[in-house]
Design goal:
Layout: E1 2-6, E2 9-23, E3 26-39, E4 45-56, E5 62-67, E6 75-76, E7 81-90, E8 94-105, E9 111-122
Antiparallel strand pairs: 1-2, 2-3, 3-7, 4-5, 4-6, 4-8, 8-9
């Protein structure tokens, strides 16, 4: 598990290898990740959007931007957390992701970024 705190928002990420499958005559590697966003501040915050950098050892970096996370824009009260799980398909058994969340502080309407630390994907059979 990797963790990082930005402006009082703690991000914790764990990953898992979900398996392989063929799609369009190519092998794909499926990875899952679970992220917990913990509000360690004195003010409610809302996650409004996300930015991802996806690194695949066989491909160029892929950049994804979108609203919320898994269709939600969670409001996280002080001392609370929001956990969600998602996944990533890679063309190789090794890769990584990092990025940031765009957040709003409800106390002062300030918009700010919370950085998601780099988390790695590695199929168990690809490591000696």
């Amino acid at each position: 598990m990797v963790t990082q705190v930005t402006k009082g928002i703690k991000i914790s990420v764990s990953t898992s290898f979900e398996g392989t499958f063929f799609k369009n005559y190519k092998m794909h590697y499926a990875f899952g990740y679970t992220i917990t966003i913990e509000n360690q501040t004195e003010s409610p915050v809302q996650l409004t959007s996300r930015h991802w950098n996806i690194f695949d050892s066989l491909n160029e970096r892929e950049v994804l931007d979108g609203e919320g996370v898994i269709g939600k824009k969670p409001v996280i009260k002080p001392g609370d957390s929001h956990t969600y799980s998602s996944g990533c398909l890679l063309a190789s058994p090794i890769g990584a992701m990092n990025g940031h969340y765009n957040m709003v502080d409800f106390k002062n309407s300030e918009k700010f970024r919370v950085y998601v630390p780099t988390f790695k994907f590695c199929a168990p059979f690809s490591v000696n």
